[in-house]
Design goal:
Blueprint: H1 3-10, E1 22-23, E2 26-29, E3 32-35, E4 39-40, H2 52-65, H3 70-79, H4 84-92, H5 111-140, H6 142-147, H7 150-162, E5 167-170, E6 186-190, E7 193-204, E8 211-217, E9 231-237, E10 245-249, E11 260-271, E12 275-276, H8 282-286, H9 299-305, E13 307-308, E14 311-312, H10 317-346, H11 360-388, H12 400-406, H13 409-412, H14 417-428
Parallel strand pairs: 5-8
Antiparallel strand pairs: 1-4, 2-3, 6-7, 7-11, 8-9, 9-12, 10-11, 13-14
The structure holds flavin-adenine dinucleotide.
Flavin-adenine dinucleotide (FAD) binds near residues 414 and 418.
């Protein structure tokens, strides 16, 4: 692992731990505003056993995120405003390039450290929206870093790392959904250009992106032997001022700080050198990006302080046990997630921890299992947080309703739990 670059990144950090933020909570009653106990937020996740470098990432990210209060995230959710300030702060200190090559200004670290960064952002109170606001720049650009030519890498990634550009990720289509191999958006070669025609849906951050990682067909489905053939990966300029490109925002349940869009291509013209890797190999290349998720539960603070029937509700086993079980499931999901990230890094020949015995199958099993477990554990933790807090769990002021709205997404995207279960049943259990 390239520790020197991490030290370069983190040298501006203070050596001392970051103080926990002090949150003031208010309980609104019919009689007006009644003061409820102030709670100093503790960090809930147990982080023993992680490397010094990973913990340094965590401290640095918490420090940056401490400038973005719960109210910041509530406001951005309510007003559907992208968190430009968080993106700028992370870019300023080099974090967008955490898993990018050093020669481009990145840190050359692995997906394990990138995962730690995303977890810490979510855990800081930014929730899934905070992580989602930057995750395409970190993960979706991995295939570009791996498969683009040296010249393309320099041209495409330097400005992503510096924060000047942002990326969105264009795979899902309205009429094919999880059946990705059937996607229909076509990129037709025309001299030194391609013309793109088709439609994408649910594209996050398209309103603020400058670039898009695009999966499109270069050979129609009916002309290929297998549906996995004829798909190509492009890294395109995403310029909504140009003819043939349109993005329409989708109104959605949660994570509203990050826009989701329908995207329409109508003979949108891109230079031929936007192609990444070989034509027709796009599906293989796509599998280089593996998102992972984790969540955080704050209901225990409330349960310690809310008095009903003469004692804190947290003294009742009916409150304690569901929260304890949710916590243990988060712990298990965290271990599965970092195990998957470690295997992913070890399977990468460019990573210092490369281990040729780690197969793509092993990585696939670990990533799918971690994705499933983390999404379910996060959902359960958020649902139990809301329920443990009674009516206040439903109030925006306590933030857990926001987390619950957001946490449906990892159960749906990028692949749903049903599809992971199908993969596990067929590929692992041979059913
Ligand atoms: C907030 C949000 C952000 C997103 N961001 C992006 C993005 O940036 N870029 C991008 O490309 N995509 C993005 N997506 C899209 C996401 O990846 C898709 O929603 C996801 O892949 C599911 O596809 P679908 O919605 O078309 O569901 P469908 O494929 O229509 O599936 C609908 C339901 O049917 C179930 N189902 C499907 N097949 C089977 C089967 N064989 N057996 C049993 N059940 C089945 C599914 O599990 C699901 O519950 C985002 C989605 C959301 C909600």
């Amino acid at each position: 692992m390239c520790y020197s670059s991490l030290y370069r990144l983190s040298r501006t950090l203070s050596q001392s731990c970051i103080k926990s933020r002090t949150l003031t909570a208010h309980h609104v009653s019919r009689n007006g505003r009644r003061s409820f106990a102030a709670t100093a937020r503790s960090r809930l996740m147990e982080m023993s056993g992680f490397s010094e470098e990973q913990l340094a990432v965590r401290e640095a990210i918490f420090k940056i995120c401490s400038n973005f209060s719960d109210d910041y995230w509530m406001e951005h959710d309510l007003t559907e405003t992208y968190p430009h300030e968080l993106h700028a702060a992370l870019a300023k200190d080099g974090w967008i390039g955490i898993a990018m090559p050093e020669e481009l200004g990145g840190s050359g670290l692995g997906i394990s450290e990138a995962t730690m960064m995303l977890q810490s952002i979510a855990e800081s109170g930014a929730g899934l929206a905070g992580a989602q606001s930057i995750h395409a720049n970190v993960y979706a650009t991995q295939p570009v870093a791996k498969f683009a030519t040296a010249e393309q890498r320099k041209r495409f990634l330097t400005k992503i790392i510096s924060g000047e550009w942002r990326t969105c990720f264009g795979v899902t289509e309205p009429n094919t959904g999880l059946d990705t191999l059937k996607l229909k958006t076509m990129a037709k070669r025309d001299g030194d250009h391609y013309n793109i025609t088709g439609q994408k849906i649910w594209i996050s951050s398209a309103q603020v992106a400058t670039k898009m990682v695009l999966l499109a067909r270069t050979t129609p489905l009916e002309d290929v032997k297998k549906p996995s053939q004829g798909l190509s990966m492009f890294y395109i300029d995403f310029d909504l001022t140009q003819p043939g490109l349109e993005a329409k925002k989708i109104r959605k349940m949660g994570g509203r700080a990050v826009d989701a869009n329908q995207v329409f291509f109508d003979n949108y013209r891109i230079p031929a050198d936007s192609l990444i890797g070989e034509e027709g190999q796009g599906f293989k290349i796509l599998h280089c990006s593996q998102p992972v998720a984790d969540e955080h539960d704050r209901a225990s603070d409330y349960a310690r302080e809310r008095i009903v029937f003469g004692r804190p509700i947290g003294m009742n086993q009916g409150i304690q046990h569901p929260l304890a079980s949710a916590y243990m499931h988060l712990e298990a999901a965290k271990l599965a997630t970092y195990h998957a990230a470690r295997l992913y890094d070890s399977s990468n020949p460019d990573h210092p921890a490369y281990d040729s015995s780690v197969t793509q199958h092993a990585v696939g099993v670990a990533c799918n299992s971690a994705k499933y477990l983390a999404a379910e554990a996060a959902f359960t933790a958020c649902e139990r947080s809301v329920m443990s807090m009674g009516g206040m769990g439903y109030a925006a002021e306590y933030h857990v309703e926001r987390y619950l709205r957001e946490v449906f997404v990892p159960r749906i995207a990028p692949i749903s739990r049903v599809i992971i279960s199908i993969f596990s049943s067929r590929s692992l259990l041979m059913l």
